[in-house]
Amino acid sequence: MQRDRMDDLVTFAVVARERSFTRAAAQLGVSPSALSQTLRKLEERLGIRLLTRTTRSVSPTEAGQRLLATILPRFDEIRTELDRLSIYRDTPAGTIRITASEYAAERVLWPRLAPVLRACPDITLELSIDHGFRDIVADGFDAGVRLGESVERDMIAVRIGPDARLVAVATPAYFATVPPPVTPNDLTAHRCINLRFVSTSALYAWEFRKGDQTLRARVSGQVISNSINACLTATLDGFGIGFLPEDLVAPAIATGALVQVLDDWSPTFPGLHLYYPSRRQTSPAFRLVLDALRFPKGASPNLTKS
């Protein structure tokens, strides 16, 4: 009912402005008789006459003039706002919300998106740091970042990074006090640096694989953090074994500051993927972000979904 009344007001405004049922009917794509009937029903519902009709002309009554003066500015405001919305269709503008781990945000997203933000000042990027899994639709995100194997099947996934590994590392000084682990089961005898997921408050279970054998190790130690960088710092300070992205600790391994263990138990995972719910009606800003993050084709021979 409310929509019908709005349509009737639009019809009245066009007829009153054109002062002709014929011209108004041509604009609205209906017959003059249908317009006349619509206006009569509107007048009956309001209990007042809005238009004076003669065989040659149509003109608003005093009440009609007052109504026209009230609704036309509103219609103009709506039309102007609708025109302004076209900026989201035609130019890179608006807010893009992405949920990602601290590692993904700092190592992948920010280095590639900072140039985009500089080039497009009308784009706002909101990064939400969370190591856990988020329902991006329910939580109002445009996209999320996960390892490729963790993306739900109903999501569109685009690879943004190479295949990756988490590796177990500690300082030489730490291993001087206790023998290095040979299997993941040996970790129960070690102090380890735990990572806690913010969204679930759960501790990350370290995942290992060797051949057909898969193990998930629940570790313990003196330090727990929800920050990968804090876990790295604690590891470098000798508080135990950390389980960290290989490329993050590679410089410290190269200099001897950290020693890698359980290498043959550290599997390769499909790399980071940006995931989002639909290809339809993606904004120019989102397409620009997607293109900036997309991992170059041919750079990795392994799983790539896009």
Provide an overview of this structure.
The protein has 306 residues and is α+β, with helices and mostly antiparallel strands. 39% of the residues lie in helices and 22% in strands. The chain has 10 helices and 15 strands. The strands form 5 sheets. Strands 4-3-5-15-6 form a 5-stranded mixed β-sheet, with helices on one face. Strands 7, 12, 13 and 14 form a 4-stranded antiparallel β-sheet that branches. Helix 1 (2-18) crosses helix 2 (21-28) and helix 6 (102-119) crosses helix 10 (284-293). The radius of gyration is 32 Å and the shape is rod-shaped. The chain starts with a helix and ends in a 13-residue tail after the last helix.
Mean pLDDT: 86
Measure the end-to-end span: 45 Å
Query: What percent of residues adopt helix (DSSP H or I)?
Result: 25-40%
Structural class: alpha+beta
Counting DSSP E segments of at least 2 residues, the number of strands comes to 15
Order of helices and strands: HHHEEHHEHEEEEHEEEEHEHEEEH
Give the strand order of the largest sheet, numbering strands 1, 2, ... along the chain.
Answer: 4-3-5-15-6
CA-based gyration radius: 32 Å
Q: Unreliable stretches, pLDDT < 50, 5 or more residues?
A: 300-306
**Beta-strand content:** 15-25%
| Discrete helix count | 10
Biggest sheet overview: 5 strands, mixed
Shape: rod-shaped
